Amino acid sequence: MRPPRASRAELLGLLSSTGVDLPPKTKLTDAELDKLLCKVLDSVQYLTRVVPTPPLDPAAYPPWSSNGSDTPVLEAIKRHNYGEATMIEVSEMYGKGDPFPRLYTNAFNDLRQTLMTIANACDQGMTPLTFQDKGESSGICMRVLDVRHFDDKTPIVVVVYQHDLKDALTPASFEWISSYVSGTAGSNFMAHVTATVQEQHLLLRLLHNNRKRLASSYKPKRAATESSFTLSFLLPVGPLGADEMGKYNANNGCAVCGRPAKQKCSRCGAVRYCDAVCQKDDWKAHRPLCDSWQGAKWQSLKFVSSMRPAPNTLAFRFSKYDNAQHKDAQKRLDRMTENAEDDGPPPNTHGTTPFIVKVQLNSSMAKGPAHTLFRSDPSHDEMEMLIYDQRRTFEVTVHRKDLEEAAFAAVQQVLKKGDRGLKMFLWATRTAEWTIDVCLDKLPEWQKW
Where do Basic and acidic residues bias regions lie (predicted)? Predict the structure, then answer.
């Protein structure tokens, strides 16, 4: 059973809900957008950990209940990054605030919440579930058949499901629902979940993609009313990590469509386009910034990886986007200490389009977000700037020694004029693998991140 076809706008909206924000007029085809969404959904499941070489036979893993742990499926299926973990901890400590946005505003976060509802059904004895939007235009019937133990933090939830539209309820779905309502299925309890059409689309995509990865020999017992239902499995789903965010948000240049940029705005010189068509399409949106950037002063900065906050120093910075359950931060730390080398320049997720960065002036010996692993000359102290964007896909260090004194001093003076300490938000453009230009006199509004 294939998921319903999504329009181009819906595909872009679903991708955006996961954190992949493509240019609104991207020239990727609908088929390419569809393929990208499938890749993203594989990433948020950490699919290759569980199914490195399909097919998957759940019967090869022990039942969850016999794994020697009393961890509920609900607890094991939760996934969050360090940023969310901090918000959850603060919420629990002070009894206020919600670490997640309210329901029905983000399809991907709604999906994560729904997976916890499914996990809770597992803990309650495999309760059957129905999912339906408020307008009752789309619905899914589902029952958990089994839960297998991949590892202590990763259950494999085996399900059967059926998708129906309001005006096309299948006899099989009607019979299945009736069997539980009447109690003939052995229970008259069924969990009803309100799920938007967009959330259902993501859930159906997961189920459709995963069903193809099941071993054909795997045939768990199902009820007679479920003979036409589709067999699949679900894994824990968490937010995209920093590396995935950078990979999927990569921009090749054009501010409108993301294709390689061949020309730039002749008025401000700050925004680039692939052709005159995209430039014309963007003029209405670009004009206010273009006007404000007339005669702006831009300063070129050479940067290094944020893992090198000072010469002869290797530092490790925790990212709030690292997955807490899979120890992403620890794995990066292990790679660093083993290789003691950089991974190359950060991915270019902005192309040549101006973006907002936070610039923080500090000393390499000062306390801060960097955790120094080793330094060959601990007496050495050097002024530096930490520069990063909102999603931390771009996080770099600028050393005073790598710039002409006037260049570093120019940015330093801008920071000192601010009223928030030695930090400031600036417009920036990526000009090469290891350089950016920052605007010194046309400042964006103060950002809340």
Answer: 329-338
* Residue 72 Cα to chain centre, angstroms: 26
pLDDT, residue 374, reads: 38
Whole-angstrom distance, CA of residue 176 vs CA of residue 323: 38
Q: Is the dihedral of CA 58, 59, 65, 69 positive or negative?
A: negative
Res. 418: pLDDT tops 90: no
Question: What does R_g of the chain's alpha carbons equal in angstroms?
Answer: 25
Q: What would the mean pLDDT of 196-216 be, rounded to a whole number?
A: 96
From CA 314, how far away is CA 296, in angstroms rounded? 36
Domain boundaries, the chain: 8-240, 276-439
Using H for helix, E for strand and C for coil, what is the string for 321-345? Answer: CCECCCCHHHHHHHHHHHHCCCCCC
Query: Would you tell me how many other CB atoms lie within 10 Å of the CB of residue 192?
Result: 10
CB atoms within 10 A of CB 345: 16
| Torsion 217-143-200-132 (CA) sign | positive
Q: How far is CA 402 from the centre of its chain?
A: 33
Residue 196 has pLDDT above 70, yes or no: yes
CB atoms under 10 Å from CB of 223, counted, come to: 16
The pLDDT assigned to 338 comes to: 67
Predicted pLDDT of residue 375: 41
Reported confidence tier of residue 365, pLDDT bands at 50, 70, 90: very low
Which of 428, 444, 296 minimizes the C-alpha distance to 350? 428
Is the confidence at residue 387, as pLDDT, over 80?
yes
